[in-house]
Amino acid sequence: MSASILDHDREGDQDHHWAYGKLDCHEGDVSGPLIERVGTAQEVATGHDGVLMGLRAMAGRWLLWLEIDRHFCANCDDYGGRYLQFAALEDGSAIIGEVSHNRFLHEALRFDNDQEQRLRDLGWRDPLEGTTPNWHFVAVTDDDLALLAEMTYHTLFGVCGRIPWDDVLIRCQERILAPRI
User: Fold this and answer.
1) Which of 30, 87, 99, 109 is most enclosed, with most CB atoms within 10 A?
2) Residues 49-102: pLDDT tens digits?
3) Quick one: DSSP state of residue 128?
4) Tell me: the pLDDT tens digits for 130-139?
5) Which band of pLDDT confidence, cut at 50, 70 and 90, is reported for residue 1?
6) HSE, side-chain direction, 13 A CA sphere, residue 24
7) pLDDT tens, position by position, 147-164
8) Do 30 and 61 meet the contact criterion of CB atoms below 8 Å apart?
9) Rounded to an integer, what is the distance from CA 89 to the centroid of its chain?
10) Helix (H) and strand (E) counts for the chain?
11) Torsion sign across C-alpha atoms 22, 24, 30, 31
12) Which secondary-structure segment (H or E) carries 118?
């Protein structure tokens, strides 16, 4: 694990509720077309920093999901696999990254205590009641974005145990916002 993650001083523990407040949906907001493809874990890991920078630079609000287990539970009729998701705010002020929390995972894929501690050690923040139910990190600077890409890499391979040629379902979508009054 790189020193930049281990040395990261938890400064990001400051209040980033403002970023989540910008995610509120309003009447008239619509979803653009869903772009979906399968890639490999290595492909995701090596290109993720560029993707995050690109999403932040584009106009509009963009959402990106990485479904890393592609687990659909036939008994509960739901996707119960681990995922990472990212929201690029329309004003370029932040990208919010999240890792699925156990409450959303199939019991066979839930993080154990050691894995949860590794998520904390990487820089993921614990879920916040009333703000986000997932592990999260708010990137506001270029250095934060580089760190978020590195956290994603270590989450995929170190915490979730993916190997380079594992499939990852990649989804991207623009959220088209209605004019705000």
Assistant:
1) 99
2) 899 999 998 888 899 999 998 666 656 556 678 999 999 998 889 999 999 999
3) B
4) 788 999 999 9
5) very low
6) 9
7) 999 999 999 999 999 999
8) no
9) 13
10) 5, 8
11) positive
12) helix 113-122
User: 139 CB contacts (<8 Å, ≥6 apart)?
Assistant: 52, 94, 95, 96, 97, 145, 147, 148
Closest-CA residue to 68 (of 44, 92, 34): 44
How far, in Å, CA of 13 to CA of 3, rounded? 19
- The answer to whether residues 176 and 60 touch, using CB atoms and an 8 Å cutoff, is yes
CA distance 68 to 161: 10
Retrieve residue 73's tokens: 């539970």
d(CA 112, CA 45): 23
- How far apart (Å, rounded) are the C-alpha atoms in residues 23 and 8? 26
**What is the DSSP secondary-structure string of 20-52?**
HHTT---TT-EEEEEEEEEEEHHHHHHHHHHHH
Structure tokens at 157: 């391979």
Joined tokens for residue 25: 């949906």
pLDDT of residue 169: 93
User: 173 near 31, Cβ under 8 Å?
Assistant: yes
